[in-house]
Amino acid sequence: MSASEVSVVMQQALVAVLVVGGPILISTLLVGLAISVLQAATQINEATLTFVPKLLVVAATLMVLGPDMLERLIALSRLVFQTASQVAR
């Protein structure tokens, strides 16, 4: 296995991490920011006000984008196993 093949696998893994984790992180970040602004404006400091909406947004994001994320991870797993089988030869 050459360095270019390793580079391709690593590149695909990094892209998969960004594609799978990015939407969840961005949506959670936006909801957390909105709730923090709301809490600062109303001076309500309740921990559950930040946790529950983030949990709901993560669940909704996974329901909407979950199949595409799973498809991306399956494709990456196939690439890794195919590359690993070439190394074993």
Give the overall form.
elongated
Largest beta sheet, briefly? none
**Rg (CA only):** 19 Å
Uncertain residue ranges = none
Q: What is the helix tally?
A: 2
The first-to-last residue Cα distance is 10 Å
> Number of domains in the coordinates?
1
Give me the strand/helix succession.
Answer: HH
Q: What is the overall pLDDT average? A: 90
Range of strand content:
under 5%
> What is the number of beta strands?
0
Structural classification: mainly alpha
Helical proportion, percent range: over 70%
Give a verbal description of the structure.
The protein has 89 residues and is mostly helical. It has one domain (18-88). 91% of the residues lie in helices and 0% in strands. The protein has 2 helices and no strands. Helix 1 (3-42) runs antiparallel to helix 2. The longest helix is centred in the C-terminal third of the chain and has 41 residues, at 48-88. The chain is elongated and about 65 Å long. The N and C termini lie close together (10 Å).
